[in-house]
Amino acid sequence: MDGLFLYICRVESLKYNMNMLKGSSIVSNYESDIAGDYGSSCNKYRRCSMNYIKVFIFAILIVGCTNRSGQNMHENEVEFYTIDIEQCLGTEQTVLMSDIADTVEYIVLKTPDEVVITGIRQVIPYGNYLFIRARGVIYKFRKDGQFVRQIGARGQGPGEYLIAASFFIDPQKKEIVVGEPNQLLYYSIEGNYLRHISRQFSEFALSDSLIWIANYPGHWEKFEALSLTTTGDTVSSIPNKVYGTGQDNGYQVAVTSRMSAPFYHYNGHAFYKGFDDNDTIRKLSGAQATPYAFIDFGKYKLPLEYSPGTSGFATYGYKYLGVPFISEDADYFFFAPENRATGASDFCLYNKKSKCGFIVTDENGQGITDNILGGPNIKLFWITGEYKIGAIEGYQLLESMEQGEYSPIPAFKKQLSGINDDTNQLIILCRNKQSKNK
């Protein structure tokens, strides 16, 4: 019962301040994408209402009695994860690629001379194609790396965008949805412009028939996320806990990692992680945002008085960490805690079964040990139902091969011979491990 008591307190603390409100504005920082620059808390839990706990425990006891009378309850039906960052960074473990993937393939992106692919921020496989966001532009490739076309164009006319901040593919409508800070643009899978919605925001995801948009939660923003109808009307919101604190240096500046991704998708659902400092992951279902996991930053939690946009951040930000992105499969969460000032990061996994996290490393450095191709360790950023995906610059791949002790298989060794400093950034497709029971 003590464990139940702590669990209730934790979940209730995560539900704090989730109201149904309206309104939004965004000030965001995408200049690094335009330039092509590529780089890489635990707050005390709020006390629960004793009345709530008593009612909840009473309900649990009733369910328990029902269970003993013949109905089976499954412990994992309501799963909740707590990712302890201090514990993760204090533990190291080697993970073999063959344990999580069946195949590994490096995709060389072949483009016309005027198209250079670097600074990849997002990769979505769809059918026989790969859709890639790099330097604020969306591109379509075949899975063999052959260039097909650019989606949309840079500009301010119909069907154009200044910078694509994020994108998503709606498999039901077979549409590509591209978001920039002032609008959502819709294209067919073939790349033809269809329509747009005007709205200020930073990042977005689709959940059922609604659009969730995220704002960088500076002290000037009233909400950190909103759900909207397809016509742009607000349905629900997640309030910004630092709104109106007045902790600022006179500027509205969003300081985020270049790899920040406040939304991700897993197992057919959208999830809201929020930006770097946010510690609550919520599972989205229509207008609902249910607490799903908690990132316990511990001593690495950035204090409110040092939030980005304050004078304290420039002085003390280096002491704290953020988690700019997170993704997951059935067994692990994949993430990289990053220093809020320097950008230095550690590639980590959290084992859902053991409830423990760790830095993934071996004698050659951080990343998944590639015992399939015999190449350098691989860091994975995007997880889909079919693939785990990474990206690496050609020159970085060659440097890694020279610096580490690797034994590449002949086919991979032959592929490496065709890579040079001018090669576009490569996509690493790792096909997910198939169940032996299938």
Task: Throw out a few tags for this protein.
Neuraminidase; 5-stranded mixed beta sheet; alpha+beta; 7 helices; globular; 438 residues
Judging by the overall fold, what is the CATH architecture? Answer: 6 Propeller
Spans where pLDDT lies below 50 across 5 or more residues = 1-76, 248-252
**CA radius of gyration:** 22 Å
Shape assignment: globular
- What do we call the CATH topology? Neuraminidase
Query: What distance separates the N and C termini?
Result: 39 Å
**Helical percent range?**
10-25%
CATH class: Mainly Beta
**Averaged pLDDT, please?**
81
> What's the domain count?
1
Structural class: alpha+beta
**Count of individual beta strands:** 31
**Corresponding CATH superfamily:** TolB, C-terminal domain
- Main beta sheet: 6 strands, mixed
What portion of residues belong to β-strands? 25-35%
Distinct helical segment count: 7
What oligomeric state is this? single chain
Explained architecture:
The chain is α+β, with helices and mostly antiparallel strands and about 450 residues long. It has one domain: TolB, C-terminal domain (Neuraminidase, 6 Propeller), CATH 2.120.10. The protein is about 15% helix and about 35% strand. The protein has seven helices and 31 strands. The protein has helices spanning about 1-15, 30-35, 50-70, 85-90, 310-315, 395-405, 410-415; strands spanning about 80-85, 90-95, 100-105, 120-125, 130-135, 135-140, 145-150, 155, 160, 165-170, 175-180, 185-190, 195-200, 205, 210-215, 225-230, 235-240, 265, 270, 280-285, 290-295, 320, 325-330, 330-335, 340, 350, 355-360, 365, 380-385, 385-390, 425-430. The strands form eight sheets. Strands 2, 23, 24, 26, 27 and 28 form a six-stranded mixed beta sheet that branches. A five-stranded mixed beta sheet has the order 1-21-20-19-18. Strands 3-31-30-29 form a four-stranded antiparallel beta sheet. It is globular and about 55 Å long. Residues about 1-75 and about 250 have low confidence and may be disordered.
